[in-house]
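pinging the channel bc i need a second pair of eyes. not urgent but kinda urgent?? the chain im working w is below, pasted from the shared doc
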Amino acid sequence: MSFIKVYIHLVFSTHNRKPFLNSKDLRVKMWKHIKQNSEEKEIFIDMVNGFSDHCHCLISLGSNQTIEKVAQLIKGESSHWINKNDLISEKFSWQDEYLAVSVSESHIDRVRNYIKNQEEYHRIKSFTEEYEQFIKHYGFEVFKINFG
């Protein structure tokens, strides 16, 4: 048996950073659905949360999983779910791009708390500011990544 523990902090935004998830009730439903659906697909999400225009997931990858496939499954299915259930008045979609970084075992609790406290965090900073902070902190400036 192989033993694997590879944690990834995955962040993705709504299409054009539109605040589709503008109510706390809707966000709670979305995060709960993402977690439940991921379990069914054997994707281990340790923590999921976000705000009106984006989502954070702390994921532990399985031996046969890639970041790309996990992101595709989470985003695609949750978009389908919210549209199928008419939870918002217009067509929902996530941005194609995402940000994913590895998380060392020694930083897991810090990342969990960061994700858990998204509501509080975004009273102070916008997602654009948060995104720019990630880009700078992880040295992604050279790639000129654009979430919208």
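so The mean pLDDT is 92. and The first helix runs from residue 24 to 40. — does that match what u expected or am i reading it wrong
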